[in-house]
Recover the amino acids of this structure.
């Protein structure tokens, strides 16, 4: 998908170097909330293994990972995870390079993955688990018509070992 000067495409093996650079540039600010990603991409060799695993999971319909690019540079990622095929729901996660925050790109990417999840994957519900203090992510959810369904107390453990409350936003296909 193309929008403005940006594209969204499934992660591929040719993206390893660019993905590593993207995560590395944002490592300090995303490490607390994306510990698996940051610990699995500490060098290009580990990043290649991580990307191969994400491609394998896509083929198994267990995880769908997309990259947001500005020309050839990776500037963000958005993904479906924790897919429940019985209930037809999935969690969506995302993060964007600090230089591109506040420009509406993440909102457009969430719209893209919502359409993908409902129309191509066949899901009935998407949900977001957002740290209470993450005002920007809450705005992205609200712009895409996700509704606040509740607060989950101490539902996430950060990489530093702290339990935090998360806000649970949901969107139904209907």
């Amino acid at each position: 998908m193309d929008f403005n000067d940006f594209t969204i495409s499934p992660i591929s093996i040719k993206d390893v170097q660019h993905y590593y650079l993207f995560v590395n540039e944002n490592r300090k600010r995303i490490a607390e909330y994306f510990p698996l990603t940051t610990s699995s991409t500490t060098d290009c060799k580990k990043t290649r293994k991580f990307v191969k695993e994400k491609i394998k999971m896509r083929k198994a319909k267990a995880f769908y990972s997309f990259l947001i690019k500005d020309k050839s540079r990776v500037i963000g990622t958005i993904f479906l995870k924790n897919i429940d095929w019985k209930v037809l729901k999935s969690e969506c996660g995302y993060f964007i390079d600090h230089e591109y925050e506040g420009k509406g790109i993440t909102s457009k990417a969430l719209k893209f993955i919502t359409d993908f999840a409902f129309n191509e994957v066949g899901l009935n519900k998407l949900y977001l688990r957002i740290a209470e203090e993450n005002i920007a992510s809450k705005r992205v959810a609200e712009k895409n018509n996700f509704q606040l369904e509740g607060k989950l107390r101490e539902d996430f453990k950060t990489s530093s070992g702290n339990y935090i409350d998360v806000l649970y936003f949901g969107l139904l296909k209907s």
Notes: The chain has one domain: 2-124. The chain has five helices and eight strands.
